[in-house]
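Folding Query — how this chain folds
Tokens — whole-number codes for backbone shape
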Amino acid sequence: MSDCLFCKIIAGEIPSTKIYEDDKIYVFADIAPAAPVHYLFIPKEHIQSAAAVTPENSAVVAHIFEKIAEIAKGDEFKDGFRVVSNCGDAAGQTVKHLHFHLLAGREFTWPAG
């Protein structure tokens, strides 16, 4: 989608601090981190939100979680981490492209937000 911020980041039209990339996903550091470690995991295919996951596109979600587990083996994640995906305006989704926040490096409280 030409007006999607994350699609523009994937295309290299907007700079980002890349953490990881393969043919299915792109991972980068959040520009306004909510924790000392704050990465965004996004599928390269434009999927609007978790509500738009289907049997045809769900494999990319599994792939994202495999990469989250792999990346979270680093020292900065040794005390634990949180994975968040906001879905819709009321939940705080500001970019309408499926993404998962990986947060670490501080203690988190519950309930969230």
Summary: Strands lie at 18-21, 25-29, 37-43, 81-84, 100-104. The mean pLDDT is 95. The chain is about 15% helix and 20% strand.
